[in-house]
## 1
Amino acid sequence: MKSPKLDISLVNKAKEGDTIAFRAIVETYKDPSLSLACSIMKNEQEAEDVLQEAFIKVYKSLSSFRADANFATWLFRIVVNTSNSALRKRRWKIEVKEECYQPDEMKISDQNFYVNKALLRMKKDESLTLRLHYLNELSIQEIQEVTGHGMSKIKMDLSRGRNNFKKELQKLLGNESYELL
């Protein structure tokens, strides 16, 4: 999935208090943002809660958004930070739950289902970096802005993430995994 493009005039209208414009922003970014939150939280319900909190923060912080910046990068940074804060607040061990991205709930293809399932089984930073780079088509520099990680960590997460992604697909699909790659 490519990162959606947003008409900057929507941001300007939302800054002036136009709730319809802000609703359009939410509609544009809710799916890729939920995907990012789910990759961190590993639970769809918690990811939805985090996403709601993140969009409230976005609304309250719109006045600080600089028009020369990439809106998607700014928003994704808020989603990632909000997700990480929620994880820190959680006192129990994170369990990878299989309910994220069930094909009957999300009505996505089998291919997308297995890609998401493999990503959910991976380490948080690797999964997040792969989603940002391949699904949202962000550059390494943009990923650095979103995550706050150094360039070498991002490159390492991409490299390890690709290898671990292949292994997870292999576990899920056996020889059929090569059709997805």
## 2
Amino acid sequence: MGQDINRRDLLGSASAAMAAALAGPLSLPGPLEQILPAQVSALLPDEARGAAELIAELLRLEEEAKALRLPASALAFGSGGIPGDTSRLYEQVMPRLVALIDRSQARVPQLADKAAALLFRLHQTQYVAPDGWFQGSLMPALPSVDFPQTARPQRIATPLDGDLPAQPVLPGVVLAAPVAEPAVPDVPTVPLPGISASHRFDDISDEYAAWFGAAEIRPKHRESTDWHLTMMRQSRSRYAALGKQVGVPWQFIAAIHGLEASFNFRAHMHNGDYPLHQRTRQVPAGRPRAWLPPSSWEASALDALRLLGFTGQSDWSVPRMLHRLEAYNGFGYRHSKRASPYLWSFSTLYERGKFVADGRYDPKARSQQCGAAVMLKLLDLAGELD
């Protein structure tokens, strides 16, 4: 227990030091040893050290863009220093890297490549390969014609630790932990259906519809979800042109791209692998199989959609989309009647609990990614979900 307390204290010290060193007007930080006190830097855990280095590199790239007088981006998000809270690092940094790519790709592609490589590094802090890329993953909604032969044991979210009692915020909705933030206004009082252990669409379609209708954006994520809506709107033409080829709604593609590649158009949509001119290295490795320059994002994304069996489907209602998305990511949360962060993160229907690696569920971990259902909800509220 003492070791855990020391580790928490150290991470807190590192976060406070990063916040103090990197907050305020945009400046170019020096080496890590100059940013953090020597005693903290010497004992810094890998994740905190990696966070500090990533933030420093982002600020260097933004300073380079400023020196080159690159045009502003409609995707601009935040400015200056970044809060040192590593629990929200991805949420704060991902939009800034996407905006940096958007600013530089036309005039300084080398800078865009640097930002895309850094975005890949950041993406890896959140990414765990979905069950959809593994054999025997119980995916009735995804009849792939070419699945990889790698097997993954069935994932099940273990019960909560005793120090994290479940505390639903809506009748019938079981969450993974108490909600420690201001109540969201206008939360429905009509009881929602509980989480069924079934995988069959016919058994859970009403559940998807009810949850989608009741989901509210958590206030602390509002700036981030507003950015997600802007990002999806700006990239709509690319998603729509791709979807038209295979009969997949652009909104569905946008959600997959955000979660699987952090909206990086210089990476493979399969898993966020960078760079595009190389085949994928993570599961599913070696994709696309026929891959010669020039290698476009559209061609790679098309391979991913076909490989997963998303193409040629007829029903694209919201419940059906949510079922396909959950089946692709995996039903491990449903086995324990928990809300999947892949769908509901950033909403009132999810607080914490996440698979952080194959077979390892952490009840205290929070997803830093906006859930797919929440992205669809944003489009629905904006009148852009057909």
## 3
Amino acid sequence: MIKILSHWRRYSVPAISVLAVAGCAAAFAALGTQPDSVRKAARYVFMSICSTGSGDQAGFAAENDTAMNKMMTDMSVAPSGSVDRDFAAMMIPHHQGAIDMAQAMLRYGSNEQLRRIAQEIIVEQLQEIAAMRLALDEPLPPSAPAPTQTARN
């Protein structure tokens, strides 16, 4: 009986966690067909339900949701007539969204391998944003150190 309980504990908690995450993912996917106001309200409710746990998880979920919303809004551009400009106009906010999400990971995450990956994402995405701006003869923002360090470091 003890062996059965040991196996149950070992496999049931991860299985329940996977099902909860899958349920949250399915709920988010279903929002794609709803009007914007419904999506925003439902996303807030789902984030509250799906991000219960530590303060780090809730903080990360909130920052990540903000980054995703801003990225999706900023990627909605009217066609300019130039494929090059349209591509850059959509990809620059996409890359900035990746930077914002990586910064949230650095603020709240603890896995050192993932933190290094997040730092690399920030540096690489900043470089690609600069390259796209240069390709379009757009001005670059003022130079600043890459925001890969946080108060936790």
## 4
Amino acid sequence: MSICIIENKSELGAGTRGASLCVDAIRMSALAGGSDFFQRHQVNTLIVPQDDLYKETRHPFAKRIDGIKKVYEMVSREVSKNLLDQQLPIIISGDHSSAGGTLAGIKKAYPDSRLGVVWIDAHADMHSPYTTPSGNVHGMPLAAALGWDNKEAKCNEVDTETQQLWDELKSVGTSQPKVSPENLLFVGVRDTERAEDLLIKQRGVTNYKVDEIRTRGASVMARRALEEKFADCDMIYLSLDVDGMDCEATSYGTGTPVKNGLLKEEVKEFIQVILESGKVCAFELVEVNPLLDDKGNKMAEIALEILEFAESILTKLKKPVLA
């Protein structure tokens, strides 16, 4: 299978600075360890509008959403192009907000296909400008992909310009929702707010909790997901936020670390089963922040290990998804 790497250094959606160094930190890890990961495949580096970080945001409930919309469009175009060229993209992104752009690109390329989403993360990322406690858009990509405003849990009075930009963000790639809740799987989500909890309960979103994965086994739970969640899906998007892992066992090198997460070995075991299904059309890794790493460049080293592990599985597959 032909693999390409997309580098997206945007951290416009994050609340702390440093995630834009994610790609460089992983590259430095590869260089220090003698890995040629970045030389083995075509690499497409997106030129993202980082200057927006220096500007005062006009949208307190969706900070830098105007710049993030541009990132969504760039990511969507690149992902769509790669898929239509029969390439499977591995996306390395700064913050998780642009995962909405990845989902938009997948649906732009294959609008009639049923998409499953594996979301390995400490957070649900299902806020909207109407519910966000922080205004950081890296907490909103799934709400955008699902087309959910969640006004029932509204706590913010959102201005007209922000509303319009949010609607435009939801419509990047296609005006239709990119994924259905029955085909969305949370893995390791453990830090949510009330507005998200209401959505998860009302819409029946499945969450494989850390204790369940540890007790039953990661590979067992992954096979269960393929049978119960993704049997009718044509393809799967696999998204890994490194804060889904336990910060004590890995490192604090991410913007929003949460204790009691997955172990690195559990993540690898889970994604192996999903990748070997042959349904994965894109794999994304996000939120490495070397400025916050308490163990040198440890989180980037772990990220590289997982990326190379995923690559080794994907290269053994005989044909692209939906070939």
